[in-house]
Q: What sequence folds into this?
């Protein structure tokens, strides 16, 4: 709080009022109509107050180096402005289902960004570009294992075996090109056995 006061030039009675407002507050959670025990929060402000968006903006002002900070800052300022101007009210509470959906959405977006920026797993990303994609595995265990090995870019084909040092050559038995997954499944006529994947 002292840092916020110094950065924004807030002092005197106003600063003491804000500090008093934030101290000795108690909250409880409501899930499915039932309330939890009262607790004193270590962070945050009381809901449904006009001071809440302002305090949030003041707190977030000095946070730097966080991914998507500028976008989050713009959205927070817009949200605070809309609440302050009574364009729409501040939410009094959030349901458990809404909190779960919000958490899931944030996690999925974060995972997607990490997945897109990851240096490894490029082949797997070509097959599964979207985080959260449900993968259906075949009933046949042998085919399922081959499928997993393809996704992990770790097959028993010559191209992968040569890369790991277990084969002398990356070239296919048909001698036309490197024995990659694409070659094996689409272009190679020398074999049609999945045992080699």
A:
């Amino acid at each position: 709080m002292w840092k916020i006061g110094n950065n924004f030039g807030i002092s005197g009675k106003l600063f003491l009022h804000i500090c008093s407002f934030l101290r000795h507050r108690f909250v409880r959670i409501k899930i499915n109509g039932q309330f939890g025990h009262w607790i004193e929060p270590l962070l945050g402000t009381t809901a449904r107050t006009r001071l809440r968006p302002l305090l949030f903006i003041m707190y977030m002002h000095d946070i730097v180096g966080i991914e998507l900070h500028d976008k989050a800052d713009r959205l927070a300022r817009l949200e605070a402005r809309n609440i302050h101007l009574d364009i729409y009210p501040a939410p009094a509470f959030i349901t458990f289902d809404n909190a779960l959906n919000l958490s899931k959405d944030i996690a999925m977006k974060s995972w997607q960004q990490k997945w897109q920026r990851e240096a490894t797993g490029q082949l797997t990303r070509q097959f599964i570009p979207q985080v959260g994609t449900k993968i259906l595995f075949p009933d046949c265990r042998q085919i399922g294992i081959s499928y997993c090995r393809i996704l992990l870019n770790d097959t028993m084909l010559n191209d992968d075996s040569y890369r790991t040092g277990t084969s002398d050559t990356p070239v296919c038995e048909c001698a036309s090109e490197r024995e990659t997954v694409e070659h094996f499944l689409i272009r190679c006529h020398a074999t049609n056995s999945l045992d080699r994947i």
In short: DSSP finds nine helices and two strands in the chain. Strands lie at 30-31, 34-35. Residues 2-93 form one domain. The chain has two domains: 2-93, 141-196.
